Amino acid sequence: MALDDQTFIWAVKSLSGEISTQMRMVVLKMDGRKATFRYYLDQEPSDFTRERAEVVAVNFDSGMSFALGSLEIEFKHSTEPLGKLDVLDGILFRRWENSACRTDADQ
Question: Nearest 10 degrees: CA dihedral of 46, 48, 49, 55?
Answer without folding.
Answer: 150
